[in-house]
Amino acid sequence: MKNNKNKRDNFFLPSPPWQSPDLSSGNGGGGDDSSALSSIIESGSITVRKGDHLIHCLTVIGQIEGHYILPAQNKTTKYEHVIPQLVAIEESDEVDGLIMILNTVGGDIEAGLAIAELVSGMTTPTVSLVLGGGHSIGVPLAVSTDKSFITPSATMTIHPVRMNGLVLGVPQTLSYFEQMQERIVRFVSDNSGISPDRFREMMLATGELVMDVGTVLSGEAAVNEGLIDSMGSLSDALNCLYEMIENNTENLVDKSENNTPKG
């Protein structure tokens, strides 16, 4: 369903994306572009209105930064920035939906899973779009939304859990790795159409990656495997989100009418 509303209805919301939007000013389409640009630079996100719908766009790029600060030259997504945004979106009465754009090489497993768990537990309609790559912990993030899309040129890399730095060569370490890996397998299988056994098989495949184990999936292969819901572009993801918002609004109206006391 194409959304044919006039593009002049679009405007950038001047409030920071981690705060609930303030629409009391009623200034129509005359938003503050400089404030919107600042929001993009500082947090990689923006809140925009189209017609009657207000949606938040969250970008997950580079490496997912966890408890340790990565070098300055690395492009990072900081989970301490993302988590408050997600809470604000879920609690906001004005934001109708969330679109998450992914182009990530992975990163901190626990930070990535924390973000993915928050997204999967949201009642606000959510859509993800994988551009370029959704590798490693980016896979759970991609499938955490209500509906997931991937472009034909994008890829997703599935591989076992790995750790940098000092590792103790004891059975407990291997057990810890296995438990963490199972958390990822369980989350991905619960939030997508792929089975746990098939995901493990691709995770531990040999012969595809040089000096590593795992599987690289093209956009089409990711859809065929049931990992991602659909192939599509930005317009497809947005149209799907608007349709979900409309359905959600209709359901809320129906529930409100059914709960109205009869005189």
Can you give a write-up of this model?
This protein has eight helices and ten strands. The strands form two sheets. Strands 1, 2, 3, 4, 5, 6, 7 and 10 form an eight-stranded mixed beta sheet that branches. It has a single domain, classed as 2-enoyl-CoA Hydratase, Chain A, domain 1. The protein is globular, with a radius of gyration of 20 Å. Helix 3 links the parallel strand 5 and strand 6. Helix 2 runs parallel beside helix 3. The chain is α/β, with parallel strands linked by helices and 263 residues long.
Features:
263 residues; alpha/beta; 2-enoyl-CoA Hydratase, Chain A, domain 1; two-stranded antiparallel ribbon
SSE layout and pairing:
Layout: E1 11-12, H1 33-43, E2 45-50, E3 53-65, E4 76-78, H2 79-91, E5 97-107, H3 109-120, E6 126-134, H4 138-143, E7 147-150, E8 155-158, H5 171-190, H6 196-203, E9 215-218, H7 219-224, E10 230-231, H8 234-258
Parallel strand pairs: 3-4, 3-5, 5-6, 6-7, 7-10
Antiparallel strand pairs: 1-2, 2-3, 8-9
Q: What count of structural domains? A: 1
* Beta-strand content: 15-25%
Order of helical and strand elements? EHEEEHEHEHEEHHEHEH
How many β-strand runs?
A: 10
What distance lies between the first and last C-alpha atoms, to the nearest angstrom? Answer: 39 Å
Oligomer state of the chains in this structure: single chain
Average pLDDT score? 83
Radius of gyration: 20 Å
Shape: globular
What is the CATH level 1 assignment? Alpha Beta
